Amino acid sequence: MTIALLTGASGFIAGHVLKILLEKGYTVKATVRSQSKAEYLKGLYPADSKLTFAIVEDIAAPNAFDEAVKGVDVVVHTASPFHFKVTDPVNDLLDPAIKGTTSILYATKNFAPQVKRVIVTSSFAAILNPSKGDWPEHTYSETDWNPITWEEAIGPNPSSTYRASKTFAEKAAWDFLEKEKPNFTITTINPPLVWGPMIHDVTPETVNTSNASIWSLVNGSQATIPPTAVPAWVDVRDVAEAHVNALEAPAAENQRYFVVAGKYSFSDICDIVLKNFPQLAGKVPTDGVIPSKESYNLDNSKSKKDLGIEYISLEQSIVDLTKQLVAWV
Average pLDDT for residues 207-231, to the nearest whole number? Predict the structure, then answer.
């Protein structure tokens, strides 16, 4: 019986990780920010599920995970903010991402010496080089790093702050591994925009940042087809599978995985929604920016080879999500 600590368990990706862990027979200790979030997740599973909770109100607080890690065998760290509502770059995004990551790693080293593997949710944001723009001659892979600086991170652009938070948090994890030489290995999972059905506690007002872009197309609030800023996507179920498979795959030790299904444009997505949900005609935009298909390429071969991921199609992902969203229209 393997006991997994899952941090940030009430999140979009973590909800699917939790489901897979329980289905595969893991005992799960899940960290959440409040008892109400624990009660919601508890209600999704049978009373005899091997699921317990630890309340961690602030992942950036000193020693935040010291108690939570005790007695577990593996760690999956998904807790990190993803939003662009930034008033204080350091307190809102940078500290929670960076300190949350180092906190879980130090806690595991100091209080859970039995742990052999830690999985950390990173992001394509830590791979992408925004200064290169569309860069059609380049193929992004795990070997790429976002070259963002701290000065850019604390500037006025919330997107830069978010990307920096993921970049610096992941670099902190690899620096920890090199300097502290813990008993455990580290694996990072680096997805781009993540779409797909939602298990976590969500309302029309609290849709997670990535799915909110699809919700705005479905509910009629987006009058025109928006530009496709980052033409790379993946389904949440594949991201969750990558996290769990990385716990078990021998090849995943101390590796980084670009977990990406492929490229898309918002015009593609509008076409998919209208084809499968004709009742949304008049709400889903049909006019607007049709982006050039010329952009960087994406290499997901390592995730397929090592983690066995067979990627869900864009149409399936968007249809499965939209089935949930239309209930709110």
Answer: 93
